[in-house]
Specification:
Blueprint (H helix, E strand, L loop, with lengths): L14 E12 L3 E12 L3 E6 L5 H8 L7 E6 L2 E2 L5 H8 L2 E4 L11 H12 L5 H14 L15 H13 L5 E5 L7 H18 L2 E5 L3 H7 L2 E6 L2 E6 L1 H5 L4 H4 L4
Parallel strand pairs: 3-8, 3-9, 6-7, 7-8
Antiparallel strand pairs: 1-2, 1-4, 4-5, 9-10
Helix pairs in contact: 3-4, 4-5, 6-7
């Protein structure tokens, strides 16, 4: 159900992510975000739907500071990221994990090395034995311990997604951003990745934004869905509510 205008969440239910009136254009005529506003509550899986070019990925890039919005505010953990210096922004980024479409693994490193690298870079107090234990533990969480010494070229698409997710999780982020997590995967593997997203939410108490075109993934993983159109949120609600919307355009996503 949509929140009424000017609805104020109670303090104990304050959003962990809040985007207000976000604008982003490229050049004079390409206006992508046109006042985008939405929030994500702690522990929630929010799925973001929208046709290509609706601004889904641009919003996420603005959220992590990879792109500067033209106007509007983005509050994460109660902080306006536009007002943070580089040090403050990096502290926020360390609390956010980003799963890219292709997994973004280093081809020249084994799975073990891919997972060890961020730990050694950001947790210098850990000794090699502790790093190795953390790697094994996180691979166990994604069901892929047998691949620890494989190279990325030896992994299937689904395995690369799992390793990419393991590398994202190893720094124990509080927020996870999934960019098309099931793209390019067969139906069975897509379902397994969706189940893994739910398992991670429950085990690590993460807050997540999931950008997807896969409606099976959206149905399985979402607590709530927002649908973008022309750079703003056009509809918001649960999967079941939106699937039965009176708006023909909204229902078209669920056919």
């Amino acid at each position: 159900m949509k929140l009424p205008k000017n609805h104020i969440l109670p303090d104990n239910d304050a959003p962990i992510i809040e985007i207000k009136n976000l604008y982003k254009s490229f050049g004079k005529d390409n206006h992508v975000l046109k006042g985008l506003s939405f929030f994500v509550k702690k522990g929630e899986n929010l799925v973001v739907l929208g046709k290509s070019g609706s601004g889904k990925s641009i919003a996420i890039k603005c959220l992590v500071g990879l792109m500067q919005a033209d106007n509007g505010t983005i509050n994460v953990f109660g902080k306006d990221i536009a007002k943070l210096d580089e040090t403050g922004l990096n502290e926020i980024r360390l609390r956010i994990g980003f799963l890219f479409q292709n997994g973004a693994l280093y081809d020249s490193m084994s799975v073990r090395e891919n997972l060890s690298f961020p730990l050694m870079r950001h947790s210098s107090s850990l000794n090699p034995i502790e790093v190795d234990k953390a790697v094994i533990d996180i691979l166990t969480s994604v069901g892929l311990t047998e691949a620890i010494d494989k190279m990325p070229s030896e992994l299937s698409g689904g395995m690369k997604k799992r390793v990419g997710l393991a590398r994202t999780l190893i720094l124990k982020p509080e927020i996870l951003l999934y960019d098309e997590p099931t793209t390019g995967l067969d139906t069975i593997t897509s379902r397994e990745i969706s189940e893994l997203i739910l398992s991670i939410q429950q085990k690590y108490k993460t807050t997540s934004i999931i950008i997807t075109h896969d409606m099976a993934c959206a149905k399985q993983t979402s607590d709530r869905i927002v649908i973008l159109k022309d750079g703003i949120v056009n509809a918001e609600g649960t999967y079941d509510a939106l699937e039965n919307s009176h708006d023909e355009w909204v229902r078209s996503f669920f056919i």
